[in-house]
Amino acid sequence: MTDLPQGRVTRRRAELFDVTPAAEGASPTTGSGADRFSGPATGDERALLVGVLTAQRATLALKCAGLGAELAQRSVTPSTLSLLGLVRHLADVERRWFRRVLAAADAPPLFSSPAEPDADFTGALPDPALTAAAWEAWHAEVAFAERFVTDAPHLDVEGTDSWRGTVSLRWVLIHMVEEYARHNGHADLLRERIDGAIGL
To answer: Residue 66 region, left (φ>0) first, then alpha (ψ -120 to 50), else beta?
Structure first.
C-alpha cells in the first residue's frame, strides 16, 4: 500500500474501519459497516442463507453511503450502470421474487416495464426525489422479504415464475445472494470511480 497516494490510503482505511453509512443508505433491517459480516457461520440452513443475504444487502447500502447526486453518476459509455440504478434494480428484483412469485401478489415492477425493461437504470437521474423514492422502495421490499422469510414455515415454500417455473424459497434465497454479489461487484467499481473509496 505504500505506493498508493496518501488520500487513497486514508479512504481505504476509513472504509475498512469506520464504516457507518449515512442515513439514506443505512438500513435498520440489514445492518451496516464491518458488523455486516457477523452473521452465523454454523447452524440451520435458513439462518445461514439469511445471514449471507443480509450481509450482501448491507454491502449495497454501504457502497452508496454518504452520496447524493453522485449516486446517479454513470460508469462508462455505453453502460447505463449507476449506484442509484442498482438500488432501483434490486428493489424490483426483491419485489419480483418475494412479492410476485412467492407471495403471489399483484405487484408489477416499480422502475421498469415490458415497454421499458431498462428503465430501472436509464431512469436513475440525479434528482433528490428519485433518489428518495428508490431508497424508500428498496427498504420496503427488503422489509417485506425479511417478513416473508421469517414467517415461512419452511424453505420448501413454492411459487411460480414465468422464467424459471416452480421455484422454492430456498432457491430464491440462493438466487438473491447471487444477484447481490454480482451487483455489489459493480458497486465496488462505481464507488471507486466516484471518490476513490475501496474496501470490503
So the answer is: left
Cell numbers of 63, please? 457502497
Grid cell in block for residue 26: 443505512
Q: Which DSSP symbol is given to 18?
A: -
CA–CA separation, 142 vs 57, rounded Å? 8
Those residues with Cβ within 8 angstroms of residue 114's Cβ, 6 or more apart along the chain or in another chain: none
Distance CA 181, CA 149 (A): 19
Q: How far apart are the C-alpha atoms of 175 and 180, rounded to whole Å?
A: 9
- Provide the β-strand partners of residue 128: none
The verdict on pTM exceeding 0.70 is yes
Reduced DSSP (H G I as helix, E B as strand, rest coil) percent helix, strand, coil of the chain, to 5: 60, 5, 40
CA proximity to 65, closest of 30, 14, 22, 36 = 22
Tell me which residue of 51, 128, 129, 63 sits closest to 90, measured CA to CA. Answer: 63
Instruction: List, for residues 86-107, the tens digit of each pLDDT value.
Output: 999 999 999 999 999 999 999 9
Helix (H) or strand (E) holding 167: strand 165-168
